[in-house]
Amino acid sequence: MESLKTGVPSFPRLHGAPIYHYLAEHEDSGAVFNRFMSAQSNLHNAAIVDAFDFSGIQTLIDIGGGQGATISAVLVRYPTMKGVVFDLPEVIAKAELGPAELAERCGFVGGDMLVSIPTGGDAYLIKRVLMDRSDQEALAILQNCRAAMKPQGRVIIVDPMLPSGNAPHPNWLMDIHALVVHGGMCRTEAQFSSLLESAGFALSQVVATRSPNFIIEGRPR
Q1: Rounded to an integer, what distance in angstroms lies between the CA atom of residue 220 and that of residue 197?
Q2: pLDDT tens-place string over residues 30-63
Q3: Which domains does the chain have, with CATH numbers?
């Protein structure tokens, strides 16, 4: 209730640190969290790959890609594509992509997406990351993608999207969850368009999936 009244996340106040710092300092909790994120990704990945055409992308960089569940699903469908998973060093340290054929086509890079992002990608995938971030942080991530990508690159955001009005929708619950835990938010199409424009992109398409996620694509302006 305090978060709903103030717009401030409750997790840091209750646990003494933002969630990712807390998980880094509590390895048992971090391991559970990472397993959950991979399991959740597995539930959503087929819907994403079925809904969106990734063809033409030679190198896909998955920002905040965790232990590689999402990029694995994309690489299986697109056997000539190469991938990079970018996440915090403590997350990727324990990541294993699975079959050797996939591991040969995908690398792992550690770092902080708010500071810089690996260069050289044809496309940058940001799945269920911006929903955990304030507008200021989301803008910084998108700007870092814009600075890192090739001139004809694109950014592919996968997030729960809110309706433009106040109609009932299950993603409103995700919006509250993002606020309470992370201080983030789910966004409308207009809000995504505004963020992309501020970061140097134009909204090129929005694709619904058979999951709570929508796919929002931006291309450099």
Answers
A1: 9
A2: 889 878 877 777 788 999 999 999 999 999 999 9
A3: 2-220 (3.40.50.150)
